[in-house]
Amino acid sequence: MGVLRPPHPPKRVPLIGDIIGLDPVKPMQNTARILGEIGPIYQRRILGMRLTFLGGADIAAEVNDDATWQKAVPRPLQLLRPIAEDGLFTAYNDEPNWHKAHAILAPAFTQSSMRSYHDTMAQVVDEMCSAWDGASGDVDVAAEMTKLALETIGRCGFGYRFDSFGRREVDPFLPALKDMLEYIQAQGVPVPGRKVVDALTGRTRQHQRNVDYMFKVVDDVIADRQTNPHDEPRDLLDLMLTTKDPETGDQLDARNVRNQILTFLVAGHETTASALSFALYLLATHPDEAAKARAEVDELWSTGAAVRFEEVAKLRTVRRVIDETMRLWPTSPGYFREAKQDTVLDGRYPFKQGEWLMVVLQQVHRDPAVWGDDADQFRPDRFQSDEVRARPGHGYKPFGTGLRACIGRQFAYHEMILALATILHRYDFAADPGYTLDVAEQMTLKPAGFRLSITRRAGADASAPAPAT
Ligand code: HEM
Questions:
Q1: Are 238 and 225 in contact (CB under 8 A)?
Q2: What is the pLDDT of residues 318-330, one digit of tens each?
């Protein structure tokens, strides 16, 4: 068969290429829509640069194969490199610090390791609920879930308190982080003259101030722990500062520890917060599913005691709500893969070694060949074990794939199940009937402007055990 190029979007401009139809505000949703129209693969060529997108489960399965393809760190991820350098998420596959940090930190993310984070996670959820009880009316869902997730990773990972729910103004770290991510996201869309405009308007200087501030906070956290070490490892920071890579016998160097902390603060909060926000939106707009999940939680809580570590795994209905939420709205909208050698995709599209593409999860997760004709419907029961067994695994990859898949998966599940269960148990909630889903894109996808009106349920107990010391 001759050499083929994947289809491209309509209206290719001579010399320049496929610039018509780019959406700088909602690029991922635009890409998913085009994949829905063109098919499971398409390619944009802009000034000779090739951007290929995959949206079919079968074709994505080919690039998930670690034998022929591997994680790519193209420009959108490279933009994070000045902040996180060779931290786990942005490291190139051949950087020795990836292997070292992965070996040192993976044990902190096993299912059983979640036991040591459980009380702190429950404590943070309880602080959020107490703040909600003190205020009346409705809550800004994305803002609250962001505070929850950042506080959780800050405390569980590094013993750092942002005190998100104890004070009126948010910790300055949060707006600095948000502004930094927005700036980086904007750099990813090629707009002529942006650099000049950013310099003239002070945007570049503001970005540098944000970065400097975040570096300082993280350096202070490290210095504090070095001055006041724990007797034995209690959190990620302890592991980073004291554990040796079993293979090389090396510890992480000081600069890499900072990179990892920034990586975990970024990778460990936006995604989780957005997934929780979508779950609340979907439950609020599907009261029958909310009732099912609430019934399961109420049964577990009937003793009045706080949810214990072992009980989180029993909340199967809540877990299915989360799985179905991440299917419809994968908050990490995709991942990049590059060919490890010259290869041919789908039996017809040649890719040279080092050429990369993006797997667009929103489309893969709605591929009718895997998910059926009701793929756009919110139906958590599709994650009942018999349905899961009957489906190929490659149609669902919210945490990425292979060697470089998400290290924080168990952490995210534990945190999300605990938070959602507590909210279901403690509150009746409803969406504003006038709200239409508006999905914003800021590195992750999230429901913008979504507020939830909440009413404390009679007799609902607090979730948290005594504060962790
Ligand atoms: C719902 C929540 C989450 C989602 C959807 C998610 C999604 C992902 C995805 C898709 C990747 C692979 C990216 C790629 O291939 O380029 C990834 C990697 C990663 N995630 Fe998550 N994540 C979540 C939560 C977390 C949490 C809670 C943490 C930390 C506590 C975390 C830390 C990381 C790190 C460090 C990596 C890089 C792993 C490596 O390359 O070795 N994530 N995540």
A1: yes
A2: 999 999 999 999 9
